[in-house]
Amino acid sequence: MSKVLAILGAGELGKQIANFALNDNHYSKVCFYDDFNIGEKIKGNTDDLINDFDNKLFDELIIGIGYNYLKVREEKYNFLKNKIKFGKIIHSTSWVDESAIIEDGCVLYPRCIIDKNVIIKHSTILNLNCTIAHDTIIGFNCFLAPSVSIAGFVSIDNECFIGINVTIKDNIYIVSETIIGAGTVVVKNITKKGIYIGNPHKEK
Length: 204
Prior knowledge:
alpha/beta; Rossmann fold; UDP N-Acetylglucosamine Acyltransferase, domain 1; 2 domains; 8-stranded mixed beta sheet; 6-stranded parallel beta sheet; 23 strands
């Protein structure tokens, strides 16, 4: 595949995305843009992205800014969405039901399982071994750490961070900008944004 991917964010997350993009044969080349880092491997910043896309120096963009900056990720997406084409990466070892919808800008790491009628909205990242059961909706610019398990008919709003080994039972609603700590078991709706931990979950 002779497509070039631009990644906004040259830190560890951006490097992981680049690794999947190249080694799983989604793109033939990767170039980095970053608003804070400079160096030989960084072509420019957010403003340079637009000019370089117009000049056909790359084909698609994925935001590689990390989970500590979910609000920034969304701001960048909204600024760029009508100016640049967004790509997505679904690793070849992941399984996605044909009825599922994975929107642009998303990245699914290896060995994720996405069941029927799941919707994953733009620029959300699923780390290793995440399982999303049927009829669940994951909002935009969420970040799911490794081995998250989400049952059916769950609705997670936007810009949420779900920690490693979190389990969410069926028919749960989680409000935007919520952080769920590692190993937490979510058994009731979360309607107030905050940090939640434990089994069963409680606000920290």
